[in-house]
Amino acid sequence: MYLKATFKGKTDISDVSEIMIAMLQEFPFHTFSEEENIVFAYGEKDDFTDEIKSNIQQAVLPFSNDLIFDNIEKENWNEEWEKNYFKPIWIENEVCVFAPFHTLEIEPRIPIIIEPKMSFGTGHHATTHLMCVAILKLRAQMNRARVLDMGSGTGILAILAAKLGARFVHAIDIEEWCKENAEENFNKNGVLHFQSDMGNVELLDSISEPFDVIFANIQRNVLLADMAAYSKILMQKGYLFISGFPPEDAKTLIDHAKKINLNHLFSEVKGDWCCIGFAKD
């Protein structure tokens, strides 16, 4: 059973929806969607106590005075998402992310099929879009690379790396349904050499072979806590791409990275979100 929170704006919520979603990520929500003047957030029902719900209501007061909590079945959420929110999305006029039920008028050079479930990562959110653009810019580095995707969600970033020539991709997420969804999406996209695990940064302690490239589209506090572990498992001259935070957090993350031998390569901003690339000394 899942909890669906519906936030209706006091006026036009579109100008502040990304700020709202960033704020709501501090609560146990894991998936978000938007329509005109409404933000939807989803999470496991059992993760939301009455106190947490009250804190959410207080947090969104500047943005929304109409908040509704509903309990929904997973199947109903999937059907709602498929019908209303998941539309094909193009990235750099080269990659198209779409669902099996979509019909495309133009054949993309890099097609990515995503089965829409409760996992994060369809390319619609700015952080996923930024990470995909960063991967495309460094496509040469993906060839024959061992790639780690932390907080993998649907597995979209690992799939893109595989389609650009990565020889092995490893997806890790803290949620069981993300693990299952990533595996399903790997199979739909013909990714042959992959591993998908449920867990967190502690899983890296058991990995002996380093990675050439690491992706981490996770919120700031997790990045600050885990970047040293990423650096440890990253090859010399390897690359780390991070996103999931607003631009004002970039300096904190860049300064932290310097202390663990990660050199700042680039920063990109889309709306209220930022993506940073690093290379290991």
Task: Provide the descriptors you would attach to this structure in a database record.
9 helices, 281 residues, Rossmann fold, seven-stranded mixed sheet, 2 domains, Alpha-Beta Plaits, 14 strands
CATH-derived architecture of the largest domain: 3-Layer(aba) Sandwich
Along the chain, the helix and strand elements come as EHEEHEHEEEHHEHEHEEHEHEE
Average pLDDT over all residues: 89
Reported by name, the CATH topology of the largest domain is Rossmann fold
Net shape: globular
Number of helices: 9
Q: Structural class of the secondary elements?
A: alpha/beta
Number of domains: 2
Rg over C-alpha atoms, rounded to the nearest angstrom: 18 Å
Which residues form runs of ≥5 with pLDDT under 50?
none
> Biggest sheet, strands in spatial order?
10-9-8-11-12-14-13
Report the sheet with the most strands, covering strand number, pairing sense and barrel closure: 7 strands, mixed
Share of helical residues: 25-40%
Number of strands: 14
Estimate what percentage of residues fall within beta strands.
25-35%
How far apart are the termini? Answer: 46 Å
Name of the CATH class of the largest domain:
Alpha Beta
CATH superfamily of the largest domain: Vaccinia Virus protein VP39
